[in-house]
Amino acid sequence: MENQITSWMELSVEVDHEAVESVSDLLAQYGYNGGVAIDQPIIPGADGPEYTYDLDRPVTLRTYVPMDERAEEVRSRVEQALWHFGQMRPVGPLRMATVNEEDWANAWKKHYTIQHVGQRTVIVPSWLEYDAQPDEVILRLDPGMAFGTGLHPTTQLCLVLLEQYVQPAMKIIDLGCGSGILSVAAAQLEAAAVLALDTDPIAVDATRNNLELNAMDDRVQVAEGSLGKGASFGHWMGWNTGRTSASADQESLDKGPNASQAEWQHCDLIVANIIARVLVAVADDIAATLAPGGLVISSGIITEREAEVMAAYTAAGFECLDRQQQGDWVAFVHRKAA
Asked: What is each CA distance from 328 to 290, 297, 301, in whole angstroms?
């Protein structure tokens, strides 16, 4: 891979509980793959593993940025934005540390706990134990280099909507798969077939690892690429993956006999947890890929950009079936005309 990342800049800040959502959204704009770790202080229970959050102590937020020529500019922008937040809510100073690539994934492990999302989904980090209850959908995940353990509201919105809309006979594409959490969820929800796509080879590797961890590697195909115009963006947060050609998705899909583009034409559902500008760019490509009456779950949309996304999908011939919001983030379900 070009521009191989060898070290990371860890940016951390302490905030009060009321500022967690706003500052997390800020850090997600700059952190690699939008990942933000939320380290909440707890009060241990008297018996067993029970605990409660300590609302009187600050919360530590962390994100990671590639240590490259843009790292200092990113640090400066985050610091300036935090100064403005600090005029409204208690915000501590921005701290910076360097983490080597080989230590990166382990640096995240201490920040994650078992999470219940929606009605049935339980996210279990690979290093923790959990006794599953009947009818629960268990996602055992190792975030690896690609982040994505379900902490971010955009991912949680997608999981909730997948629970509601996935049917056993569906063929599903996870566009911008990240760590593969949504691909694993779709497979666990008994989709007939799933294709995970990402323009970042690190995300592709993380997805394969998490599919193997969940024994879903024989049910989900993985490829490096995107749909149509999506390939021209490179990595969706702006990092160069060495794939800038508009035909990169076709090249990647042609690599394996089980991942041809024709096989996935007229799929039933596409889940795309990306960002607004990419969702707008690929609206027509998503419409061309879906079967008549097919569904698209779109997320990663800040409220200020939702009208833009809605307009693009209406123009592409979609009908809006559902809108969900968590904090400042919005997710849609659209249906292609039958």
From this structure: 28, 17, 8
